[in-house]
Amino acid sequence: MTVKVFIDGAVGTTGLEIRERLESRRDITLITLDEARRKDEAARREAINDADYVVLCLPDDAAREAVAMIANDRTRTVDASTAHRVADRWTYGFAELEPDQAERIAGARFVSNPGCYPTGFLALVRPLVRAGLLGSDALLSVNATSGYSGGGKAMIAEFEGGETSTAFRPYALGLNHKHAPEMRRHAGLTHAPIFQPAVARAYRGMVVEVPLHLAQLSRRATLTDVAEVLASAYDGNRVVRFAHEATTMVRIEDDANTDRMTLRVTGNEATGQALLIATLDNLGKGAAGAAVQNLNIMAGLDPVAGLTL
Ligand SMILES: NC(=O)C1=CN([C@@H]2O[C@H](COP(=O)(O)OP(=O)(O)OC[C@H]3O[C@@H](n4cnc5c(N)ncnc54)[C@H](OP(=O)(O)O)[C@@H]3O)[C@@H](O)[C@H]2O)C=CC1
Ligand SMILES: CC(=O)N[C@@H](CCC(=O)OP(=O)(O)O)C(=O)O
């Protein structure tokens, strides 16, 4: 038996990545719309209602419109946009976030795929909050660098079309990035972290860093204690891996071209300063890899089918 999947926005940056992961699958039949019909409302409505699963790879407003087109109680949705990540009725599609999150995704009708930056931040911070090492009132910062495909077709054109020659560009300097609410909510924090992202001249890949004073922790702890909490949270996980080896260098390319994520704890025990680091691919675990993982879980298939780990 196969499940019918429609990717709305299938020729965008994320949509193409999802299609690549699904098109050779024998357990999945893709519903496709040709170039002339891919933005036609009637054609999309028909495809959406014909599908068992719809994956939305659209700008936020178009994603909301697509959800409103569902006129049956059967079609299940994974939304890759920001539109529903803190919305009621939607299940947050980060399977490793909580011990029962995969089970919740498996039973959900509406699943919101996490943002790429929150994927790194939450993987590093949520286990520490859950273990009581970080209080829910912790005041955190997060700095991150993304490959330019993170900005979709428009940013790819900007970097590859000669519109910018920059190698590295911090942005969201007004500390108003759209991912901050999602980080706050799903980490279980009272205050959103100070989030300062940057984009680099690399097509794909991502480094997310959370600096911490050990004195910020709710009880006395060493770097090893922090590492142990993260290592045990992801013990045996096939997608999120804790790197036990000493970290001397991290590169944006480390997990690029994969659907996995690697977490590290490093720092200076003598000064009591820690650095939590996640590397992932903004288009992999940060987008398409997570969407396919969610689809697999919802359809009762192998959660990592079609993923590159
Ligand atoms: N790039 C990334 O790393 C990540 C992206 N996301 C999210 O995924 C979603 C897609 O982003 P991304 O792939 O980067 O963006 P792109 O701009 O590369 O692709 C968006 C696609 O949606 C199409 N589209 C726009 N409006 C409509 C509509 N009304 N009906 C049908 N198709 C439409 C566009 O068509 P056209 O080609 O004609 O413009 C385009 O092909 C966004 O919400 C983004 O925030 C999430 C995580 C990471
Ligand atoms: C480099 C870059 O511009 N990145 C995008 C985030 C990509 C992502 O995660 O997308 P969504 O939350 O939009 O789904 C940004 O900062 O807006």
Automatic annotation (TrEMBL):
PROSITE patterns: ARGC. GO terms for molecular function: N-acetyl-gamma-glutamyl-phosphate reductase activity. This is N-acetyl-gamma-glutamyl-phosphate reductase. It holds the Pfam family Semialdhyde_dh. It comes from Sphingomonas endophytica. Belongs to the NAGSA dehydrogenase family. Type 2 subfamily. Keywords: Amino-acid biosynthesis, Arginine biosynthesis, Cytoplasm, NADP, Oxidoreductase. It is found in: Cytoplasm. The keyword Cytoplasm applies. It catalyses: N-acetyl-L-glutamate 5-semialdehyde + phosphate + NADP(+) = N-acetyl-L-glutamyl 5-phosphate + NADPH + H(+). Pathway: Amino-acid biosynthesis; L-arginine biosynthesis; N(2)-acetyl-L-ornithine from L-glutamate: step 3/4. It comes from the Bacteria. The active site is at 116. Residues 4-105 form the Semialdehyde dehydrogenase NAD-binding domain. The keyword Oxidoreductase applies. Its EC number is 1.2.1.38. InterPro entries: AGPR (IPR050085), AGPR_AS (IPR023013), AGPR_dimerisation_dom (IPR058924), AGPR_type-2 (IPR010136), NAD(P)-bd_dom_sf (IPR036291), Semialdehyde_DH_NAD-bd (IPR000534). SUPFAM superfamilies: Glyceraldehyde-3-phosphate dehydrogenase-like, C-terminal domain (SSF55347), NAD(P)-binding Rossmann-fold domains (SSF51735). The lineage of its organism: Bacteria, Pseudomonadati, Pseudomonadota, Alphaproteobacteria, Sphingomonadales. HAMAP family: ArgC_type2. Catalyzes the NADPH-dependent reduction of N-acetyl-5-glutamyl phosphate to yield N-acetyl-L-glutamate 5-semialdehyde.
